[in-house]
Write a structure and sequence with these properties.
It is built from 7 helices and 12 strands. The chain is an alpha+beta fold. Helix 5 packs across helix 6.
């Protein structure tokens, strides 16, 4: 997915940018056929409604950040990587990574890494445990698009995200955990409400939850992909409006876009939308022709040039932690 703003308007879930899921990436680890890289980006550094920087505190302590993996094609998670964070205190925050399997995919599972330092500035702190590597912290946002141009009748210009940052969770995972062949991947954020976990954002494919969910956005973000057939009519209505699709064609295209799951076979090269997603895949040049029924084919923008060759692959943040708003 790529959207950066998930609320009923161009705002954040529950008004908290730290709960906002922006993008999901999955690709084989370069130079190692036995491992894969999974990336979950959250918390854009700058909002659109209102247009101002977001908080310096990277992750919410009362939240759960999860990568969900379906291994048998039923659109239900069989494996979950869950990251939870300590409260931000004395200028620091730490993370705990859980691996949850099978019927216990909503439980606590096994702790792989504890007390992993969250990176705040340019230096990327990487932690290892249980055969996994983990990074969490501020990074340069690899997403490239002009959302203001999209709102201006698809008249695109400057890449809004070229100088923006995002909070990343990057995992290096053994392919043996994923199992043989193709899996389905998505991410979600949850927050505690009255003592129970409530899902507030989720997705995998680029921009669908912003452009196609209409008035059903909050409901859509709160459910699992196994329920996505319920939103075919909603997506179709949006496609009829934005792309001028005939009704039956809109229904067909909507059905192709759901469930909102990214397929990934770690034995094959990654290329969105067919297999995972790399940090340089031009997802909007895939989505815009779908959204507009081929009336708009491209935004004319390309990948960022600050990516790293090694883990965690995303470039260092543009803004120093000390220069970010405290709240």
């Amino acid at each position: 997915m790529s959207h950066h703003y998930s609320g009923p308007r161009l705002d954040f879930p529950h008004g908290d940018p730290r709960l906002d899921l922006t993008d999901v990436y999955a690709f084989p680890k370069p130079g190692d056929v036995g491992k894969s890289i999974l990336v979950m980006n959250v918390h854009p550094s700058f909002g659109l409604d209102p247009p101002k920087p977001t908080t310096a505190i990277p992750f919410a302590a009362d939240a759960s950040y999860e990568l969900r993996i379906d291994t048998n094609g039923d659109n239900v998670a069989d494996i979950t990587y869950r990251m939870v964070f300590s409260p931000f205190a004395s200028g620091a925050q730490t993370a705990c990574l859980h691996l949850i399997r099978g019927a216990q995919a909503d439980g606590d599972g096994d702790v792989l890494i504890e007390n992993a330092p969250v990176s705040l500035d340019r230096n990327a702190t990487v932690t290892e445990g249980g055969g996994h590597r983990c990074f969490a912290g501020w990074r340069s946002d690899p997403y490239f698009f002009d959302p203001l141009g999209a709102l201006n009748e698809f008249r695109f210009g400057k890449d809004f995200f070229a100088d923006k940052d995002v909070c990343s969770i990057v995992l290096e995972v053994p392919n043996s955990v994923l199992g043989p062949g193709k899996v389905g991947l998505w991410a979600r954020t949850l927050t505690l409400a009255n003592g129970r976990w409530v899902q507030v954002d989720r997705g995998a494919r680029a921009s669908q939850s912003v452009f196609l969910t209409g008035d059903d956005r909050e409901h859509y973000l709160a459910v699992e992909p196994a329920n996505d057939a319920d939103f075919i009519a909603t997506f179709a209505h949006s496609l009829e409006h934005t792309g001028g699709y005939p009704h039956e064609d809109a229904q067909r295209v909507a059905g192709d876009l759901l469930p909102d799951i990214q397929t990934f076979d770690p034995t094959q090269a990654a290329c969105y939308p067919h297999n995972g997603r790399t940090l340089t895949d031009d997802v909007m040049d895939v989505f815009l022709p779908i959204l507009t029924n081929n009336k708009v084919m491209t935004d004319g923008l390309g990948p960022h040039d600050d990516l790293l060759a090694d883990f965690p692959y995303l470039g260092p943040p543009h803004v120093a932690f000390s220069a970010r708003p405290a709240s």
